[in-house]
Description:
Layout: E1 8-12, E2 22-27, H1 36-45, H2 47-53, E3 64-68, E4 79-84, H3 100-118, E5 123-126, H4 138-155, E6 161-166, H5 169-192
Parallel strand pairs: 1-6, 2-4, 2-5, 5-6
Antiparallel strand pairs: 3-4
Helix pairs in contact: 3-4, 4-5
The protein binds adenosine-5'-diphosphate.
Amino acid sequence: xxxxxxxxxxxxxxxxxxxxxxxxxxxxxxxxxxxxxxxxxxxxxxxxxxxxxxxxxxxxxxxxxxxxxxxxxxxxxxxxxxxxxxxxxxxxxxxxxxxxxxxxxxxxxxxxxxxxxxxxxxxxxxxxxxxxxxxxxxxxxxxxxxxxxxxxxxxxxxxxxxxxxxxxxxxxxxxxxxxxxxxxxxxxxxxxx
Length: 193
Ligand code: ADP
C-alpha cells in the first residue's frame, strides 16, 4: 500500500491545466463565479458551468457541491467540486484553540474529499482555499490543508492522489514547510517512544 504522505503532491500551476479526475473550486456562497481561481475555472469550463451552477441554489460556507467539468472535460477532468472557504476574521494570535474559520476550512477539505470518494475520483486537485481574497493566513491554512488531507488519506483508499495546487513557488514553499514541520514532529514523537 502506498503511504498516505506519498499520495500527496505539491505542484505550482494554474489548476485548470491539471489532468485529474476532479478539480476543487474555491467558490463563494452564490456559486455564480467570481475572481481568482473561481474566475479561472469558470473561464476554462465555459458558460455551461454558470448555467448549471444557477440551478444549485448556492452553497453555505464550509460545504461543497459537485458539477460536471464541461469545457475542462477535454483535458480529462470529470468533475468540479465547488467549496466555499471562510473569509478570515480570526485572530492569528490565537495559536492554541481553533477559530471558527479553522473549523470551516477543515470542513471544506473534508466535504470535498468525501464528494470525490462518492464519485469514484482517483485524483483530485485543491487550490489553496481561502488564502486569496478571503485572507486566511497562509501558514495556518497550509497546516490545516495538509493535516486534514493526510488524516483523510490515512483512513480512505480514494482518492489515490491529491494534488495541492499552488499558484506560486512561494505558496508551494509554505505548504512544504507545513509538511516538514509535521514530519519533524512525527520523528520526535517516535524517538520519545
Ligand atoms: P479565496 O476567495 O478562497 O481566497 P482566491 O481565488 O482569491 O480564493 O484564492 C485562493 C488561492 O487560489 C490563492 O492562493 C490564489 O493565489 C490561488 N489561485 C488563483 N488563481 C489560481 C489558478 N488559476 N490556479 C491555481 N490557484 C489559483
